[in-house]
Amino acid sequence: MSQVKLIVSNWKMNLNINQARTLTNKLKKIQIKNNLIKNIICPQFILLPIISNIIKESDILLGAQDCHYKKFGAYTGDTSVELLKEVGCKYVIIGHSERRKEHHETNNIIRQKAQLVISEKLKPIICIGESLKERKNNKYLNILEEQLKVSIPHNLDEIIIAYEPIWSIGTGLVPTEEEIKEIKNFTYDFVFKSKNISKIFFLYGGSVNSENISKIFESSDINGALIGGSSLKFEEINKILTFG
Ligand code: 13P
Description:
This protein is α/β, with parallel strands linked by helices. Helices cover 40% and strands 20% of the residues. Helix 1 (17-29) links the parallel strand 1 and strand 2. 1,3-dihydroxyacetonephosphate binds at residues 10, 96, 164, 169-170, 205-208, 226-230.
């Protein structure tokens, strides 16, 4: 393994305070031999200050699962990038399919969120992905192109894009190496051609676990993984972080 890999734990709406503390304290003790691995954890908002305090003086990096697209204002229930920054977040997941579905987030909103995150000097992890129906109808490249076209900002040094096919999230179904490669190449072609972005970090997410991680990485040559269920189990995430 010769390039940086981002291992992003998306805890989603899981773990209470005690469980999150216990898991984070265990994560702190992992000896990651390979300094090319970045361990990024994304807890629920209320957990962020607690986890931030625990990971001080460790190599673990903190991320949030969302933010608002405006700096501040009358947006009841939302969270600002400013606060995320204040509690030590370096990354923000933007446009996860669960937010697109449950909160009706559009590509346009996602781009505005990403722009604000970048302007505040944090790194957005922008999610794209098609449904099973879109894949079966052979519409997936059109859907992904529209997501890339509208949700990715222009003129950047770098961007992190996470490909998470909706049909793979929490299902145990993982695309083949060829399928991941196809989307990676498609993303590179489209973004380099139309966005004036110098570097892309391409992540894969969806049913990643300790058994399939090395195959996904080795065969598709991607820059990391966005991990849901397996990130909640210490034994699993430990194996993933130390796989190399
Ligand atoms: P699972 O790893 O549980 O399939 O979830 C993937 C995901 O949605 C990460 O953002």
